[in-house]
Amino acid sequence: MYQIETGIEITASPEHVWSILMDFPAYPQWNPFIRSLSGVAKPGEKLRATIQPEKRRAMTFRPRVLTATDQQELRWLGRLGFPGLFDGQHYFQLAALSNGYTRFTQGEQFSGILVGMFISSMAAATKAGFHAMNQALKNRAEANDHIGHAHDDISKEWY
């Protein structure tokens, strides 16, 4: 198994950040990594996702939703071919901070017999795509934040 995880603190409430993540039709307007996302965020349902890491071709796949916990986590499982070949469990997690802000974590756990062959060529672009999306989500959430806090520039991002 191979895992990539990134995160960022967002000066907005988890409720507001979640509302942006769940507004799938708006993804093309703001998301530089997940260029489109459609379907119902409900366990067992299939989504249609198109991702495009910078300087890479777009890829469309149909992941199955594993978890959709309001204002906490959206997790799906995408597969290449059959189970165990190349699987990716992607997740978005939100944690409320004591100041009313949100810690947003995005990651993916890769598993399967082909991971070793492909991960070295895709890890850097995938991680860069996560960082780009995290920053774009932060920018969008803070542009129309409903908490009413003065915005300190807390551009804390971690790996």
TrEMBL record:
<protein>
    <recommendedName>
        <fullName>SRPBCC domain-containing protein</fullName>
    </recommendedName>
</protein>
<dbReference type="Pfam" id="PF10604">
    <property type="entry name" value="Polyketide_cyc2"/>
</dbReference>
<dbReference type="InterPro" id="IPR019587">
    <property type="entry name" value="Polyketide_cyclase/dehydratase"/>
</dbReference>
<dbReference type="InterPro" id="IPR023393">
    <property type="entry name" value="START-like_dom_sf"/>
</dbReference>
